[in-house]
Amino acid sequence: MGADPAGAVPCRLPGHHVDPGGPGMSALDDLMAHQRETEALAQVLGRLGWDQETVMPRGSAEQRSEEMAALESVLHSRRTDPKVAEWLERAEAELSADDALNGARLHHIRRDHARAVKVPARLAAEIARVTSVAQGRWAEARAAEDVAAFVPVLDEVLTLKREEADAIAAGDAGGATRDRYDTMLDDYEPGATAAQLDAMFGALRPRLVALRDRVMGAAYQPPELCRDFDEAGQMTLAAEVAGAFGYDFTRGRIDKAVHPFSSGSGDDVRITTRTSVSDPFNCLYSTIHEVGHACYEQGIDPAHRLTPLGRGVSMGVHESQSRIYENQLGRSAAYTGWLHGRMTELFGDLGVDDPDDFHGVVNRVGPGHIRTESDEVQYNLHVLLRFDLEREMVAGRLAPADLEEAWNTRFEADFGVPVPRTSLGCLQDVHWSVGLFGYFPTYTLGNVYAGCLHEALRRDLPDLDTHLAAGDPGPAVRWLNTHVQQYGALRAPRDTIAHACGRTPDEGPLLEYIEAKFARIYKL
After folding, report:
1. Is the Cα dihedral 41, 44, 48, 49 positive or negative?
2. Phi and psi at residue 255, in whole multiples of 5°?
3. Which residue of 44, 296, 449, 480 sits 20 to 30 Å from the alpha carbon of 486, by its own alpha carbon?
């Protein structure tokens, strides 16, 4: 990133003084001390983002954007500091061949540094400023059902992210220019390419569409819940379930947000959820989903904290944790059997007496516009729509001004129903407003990884359903921590899953799990 550190403010955190070249300090020591401060500052920036989406006063948006841009400038200066390259060269020369731990740390620092030095400092700060503003504009436009109010700032975000990707891509791979979208994807799933994902998604789509058609045409259809559920009671249940799934409330908290998310790592990992009076599963499963993300971050070996290994290795692996918590565990017949009894205790008669019917209620397949509320059969079809549309925008073949029409046309073709309003369409997700182009496909990749993990977990824990039926997902949670979470970013994404499962990940286990589950529910 053509770094321009002029004007950057030197930053030192109490208790972590860096004295490069001090007595007894190796290049690796100097580098890791510098990196520790950088990681700590990145956590502070993340906390500002959490605050912005939860409790920040509405009138604070413009000032917050300046604060986030200023902190991003400091981070950019640290990541592009010429000393980092010097320390890396010396540390790699000093490293013993069998030091896999520090080898992995240096790999991540070199990769991040190589990307960072290609992005001008003014561009990094401008992206932070504009995406902070855009997040607020998106929320306002979504509430007002007004796409036109959001299009100008989306266009600005997209222009900046294209510029960033082009700067990073130039000169990669021995002088060749890398594909712009692949460069963006690499931020969230290192090593993945759009071509690889296209092949995987192409294998998923026909079987998912065929299953959906069979399910929607089945003679048996699960009932629906037709009553209101107290929102305070929903939050009580959400907190109870979060704790059972391993979320440590001494190092986290649950708040409400328009779009549920998880933020932070180590000893400060926060999650959000949302409530709907008519749909308690929205709150419950959004919470379990975010707990999966949070437990990954809380469960990383403390020795990796504030190092490059002290965070999830990719969004695909991250999503594997949230999806297996939410679906293979939380929506299993055994667990929903327990949930049926617990919800009856909290809310009274649910209108569904049979636990098997309740399992169908929880997993009901039906027309719906919201990705985060979608059933397992159709969820990935929502992701593929976004994957295709964002690639068109990044390539310049789809202008933000034409996004609404393109979305509505594609959605009706894929799902057979029109989009009645923009909050159910192209304004439903926050991702593009904050510049997360390349993020969406990791949701489906995470489902694929979760399918592989579930296959291995069931092999190792043959009595798991006995625990789930008692409302105790603990054995599965501990298995995931032992085999995936504790390692953080020690291994590459696909290697992380392969190490846990004993096999190269592919879409087969996910498809087999979904087809078997819904054939049973719908009596196919």
Report:
1. positive
2. -130, 175
3. 44
114 vs 304: CA distance, rounded Å: 22
Two tokens, residue 373: 């509320």
In order of 46, 168, 219, 267, the CA distances from 68 in angstroms are 9, 22, 54, 22
Given 53, 126, 189, 290, the catalytic residue = 290
At residue 265, the 3 state secondary structure works out as strand
CA angle 60, 64, 66 (to 5 degrees): 130
Phi, psi of 270 (to 5 degrees): -110, 150
Block residue for tokens 């939050």: 235
Q: Other CB atoms closer than 10 Å to residue 523's CB: what's the count?
A: 9
Q: What is the pLDDT along the chain (524 residues), one digit of tens a residue?
A: 333 222 322 232 333 333 344 555 799 999 999 999 999 999 999 999 889 888 999 899 889 989 998 999 999 999 999 999 999 999 999 999 899 999 999 999 999 999 999 999 999 999 999 999 999 999 999 999 999 999 999 999 999 999 999 999 986 555 556 799 999 999 999 999 999 999 999 999 999 999 999 999 999 999 989 899 999 999 999 999 999 999 999 999 999 987 789 999 999 999 999 999 999 999 999 999 999 999 999 999 999 999 999 999 999 999 999 999 999 999 999 999 999 999 999 999 999 999 999 999 999 999 899 998 899 999 999 999 999 999 999 999 999 999 999 999 999 999 999 999 999 999 999 999 999 999 999 999 999 999 999 999 999 999 999 999 999 999 999 999 999 999 999 999 999 999 999 999 999 999 999 999 999 999 99
326 to each of 293, 330, 335, how far by Cα in Å? 11, 5, 11
Encoding tokens for residue 251?
Answer: 């190092």
Q: For the stretch 384-401, what's the b/e string if a residue is b when 16 or more beta carbons lie within 10 angstroms of its beta carbon?
A: bbbbbbbbebbeeebebe
Of 90, 94, 88, 79, the C-alpha closest to 107 is 88
